[in-house]
């Protein structure tokens, strides 16, 4: 039996090669791997012993040779193939162990110039993997050091790898090179003209299986944007958050946690959000996390039960003492103090997610990946792809269209409400007072019904509140209902053919109205 080893990441390869030699497997290796194994007293031959040709072009060409690829690709059951091997004096290669240059780490580490990263695009290694995977009926291909132990165990037991093992590893190998090629493609998509290329490949790495999907009969899993790396940690995100307490997260938990995190990180001040079914029951800003949470909870205390809490500051003991009084599915924060974890852990089932996790690893830069700021929605037969809605501040396009100008206090709340309504399902209406939501109308087919729901939730708190609408009012009835409830200022995109009727309704009620010229639909 003969093995070809060519690895950049040499973790685990020494033990693996030692095990192969104990089984009398002949090992051939490319120059860097050859030197590493030889220095560690492993009996190994250089790949040039097969090709009778040295590495050239600074290592760009070392395995791209018929003696290598013929030995890998030969069909052992094909007489013609076997005759060619005999004529050329070639011995089949039965095991190919390859991992690729760390292109993603190089591009993400902020330490290598973009033009220099070109040298980390692996050509020969990817070709070896694909060749071995294609001939999986006769060749075992290993691209992940985590598979060394299982492959070696089978070789010890059976002196060969099982058919199903070779097939599984071949599928893993093709997935590996496909993801690698997708990341390399990103290197060349560096302009606005390439934002939506003719073909879009999205490499994803599975993080974990989930117990089920939205419903018990649906299967589900969580995938991350970037491959696992021993040197670099993926950016702070919900997908890579550290769970510091509680039972396993569900599919729906993750959707709501992501919604809560998106809400609170859209604000600079200490902010808390409570989410049910991806909509907020409350969002509020305060002088600290405790105050922000209490104001958010007051938005709709009854609906908050069983929801998800998100905060944008390290969650401390004072906030934890308030949160633990109510049943919540999960809490997400940049981090938790030890005291907060101890307090919240009184609730055995509550999940605690630290998005920044306290890691010392260098954080990857993903700005070079074109899909990093994209939003994807599945439809029958395809995907819709759009840039993410990052717009929040309407200052540059704001226009007061009413006779009355908003007061400074109203203007502060209007800005807050406009940021908040972006995170509510359309048709969306929010009412806010003193940097806290007091009413939410989400996901309604009629905008006036959304206003009705928000005002009904707010009750007496609607008096003196401001209102934000994610899109224009098609009729004046929504404005009239808000005025009736006591709303004093409204912010909306404008753009309806009946804008004048909405403005007249505001003026008639003495309400200030601002147009932003920007819509915040969320489907």
Taking Cα atoms only, what radius of gyration do you get, to the nearest Å?
30 Å
Write out the CATH superfamily name of the largest domain: Methylglyoxal synthase-like domain
CATH class of the largest domain: Alpha Beta
Inertia-based shape: elongated
Main sheet, how many strands, which sense, barrel? 6 strands, mixed
SSE class? alpha/beta
Q: Find the CATH topology of the largest domain.
A: Rossmann fold
Low-confidence spans: pLDDT under 50, at least 5 residues?
Answer: none
* Ends apart, CA distance between termini: 58 Å
Helix content: 25-40%
Oligomer: single chain
User: Care to count the β-strands?
Assistant: 23
List keywords for this structure.
six-stranded mixed sheet, 3 domains, Cytidine Deaminase, domain 2, 523 residues, Rossmann fold, elongated, 23 strands, single chain, alpha/beta
Would you give an account of this structure?
Strand 12 (308-311), helix 13 and strand 13 form a beta-alpha-beta unit. The protein folds into three domains: 2-191, Rossmann fold (3-Layer(aba) Sandwich); 235-359, Cytidine Deaminase, domain 2, CATH 3.40.140.20; 399-515, Cytidine Deaminase, domain 2, CATH 3.40.140. Helix 7 (124-134) packs antiparallel against helix 9 (163-188). The model has no long low-confidence stretch (mean pLDDT 89). 41% of the residues are buried. A six-stranded mixed sheet has the order 9-14-13-12-10-11, sandwiched between helices. It is an alpha/beta fold. It is 35% helix and 19% strand. It is built from 18 helices and 23 strands.
């Amino acid at each position: 039996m003969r093995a070809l080893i060519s690895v950049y990441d040499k973790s685990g390869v020494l033990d693996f090669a030692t095990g192969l030699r104990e089984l009398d497997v002949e090992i051939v290796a490319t120059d860097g791997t050859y030197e590493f194994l030889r220095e560690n007293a492993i009996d190994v031959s250089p790949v040039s012993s097969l090709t009778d040709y040295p590495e050239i072009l600074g290592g760009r060409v070392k395995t791209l040779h018929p003696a290598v690829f013929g030995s890998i690709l030969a069909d052992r059951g094909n007489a013609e193939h076997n005759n060619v091997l005999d004529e050329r004096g070639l011995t089949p290669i039965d095991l190919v162990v390859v991992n690729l240059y760390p292109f993603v780490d190089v591009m993400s580490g902020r330490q290598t110039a973009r033009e220099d990263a070109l040298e980390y695009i692996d050509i020969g290694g990817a070709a070896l993997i694909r060749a071995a995977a294609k001939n999986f009926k006769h060749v075992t291909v290993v691209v992940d050091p985590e598979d060394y132990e299982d492959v070696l165990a089978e070789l010890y037991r059976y002196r060969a790898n099982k058919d199903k093992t070779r097939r599984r590893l071949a599928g893993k190998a093709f997935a590996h090179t496909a993801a690698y090629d997708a990341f390399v493609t990103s290197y060349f998509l560096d302009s606005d003209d390439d934002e939506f290329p003719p073909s879009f490949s999205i490499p994803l790495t599975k993080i974990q299986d989930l117990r089920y999907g939205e419903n018990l009969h649906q299967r589900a899993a969580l995938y991350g944007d970037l491959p696992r790396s021993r040197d670099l940690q993926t950016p702070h995100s919900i997908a890579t958050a550290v769970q510091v307490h509680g039972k396993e997260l569900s599919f729906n938990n993750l959707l709501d946690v992501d919604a809560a995190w998106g809400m609170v990180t859209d604000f600079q001040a200490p902010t808390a959000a409570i989410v049910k079914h991806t909509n907020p029951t409350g969002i509020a800003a305060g002088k600290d996390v405790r105050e922000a949470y209490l104001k958010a909870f007051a938005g709709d205390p009854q609906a908050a039960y069983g929801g998800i809490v998100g905060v944008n500051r390290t969650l401390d003991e004072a906030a934890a003492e308030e949160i633990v009084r109510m049943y919540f599915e999960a809490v997400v924060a940049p981090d938790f103090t030890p005291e907060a974890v101890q307090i919240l852990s009184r609730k055995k089932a509550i999940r605690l997610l630290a998005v920044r996790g306290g890691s010392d690893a260098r954080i990857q830069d993903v700005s070079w990946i074109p899909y990093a700021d994209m939003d994807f929605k599945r439809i029958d037969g395809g995907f819709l792809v759009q840039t993410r809605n990052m717009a929040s501040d309407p200052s540059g396009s704001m226009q007061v269209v009413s006779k009355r100008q908003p007061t400074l206090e109203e203007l502060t709340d209007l800005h807050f409400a406009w940021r908040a309504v972006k995170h509510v399902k359309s048709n969306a209406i929010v009412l806010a007072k003193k940097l806290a939501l007091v009413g939410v109308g989400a996901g309604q087919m009629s905008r006036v019904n959304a206003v009705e729901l928000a005002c009904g939730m707010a009750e007496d708190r609607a008096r003196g509140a401001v209102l934000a609408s994610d899109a224009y009012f098609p009729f004046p009835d929504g404005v009239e209902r808000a005025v009736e409830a006591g709303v004093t200022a409204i912010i909306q995109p404008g753009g309806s053919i009946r804008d004048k009727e909405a403005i007249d309704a505001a003026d008639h009620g003495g309400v200030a109205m601002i147009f932003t010229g920007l819509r915040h639909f969320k489907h």
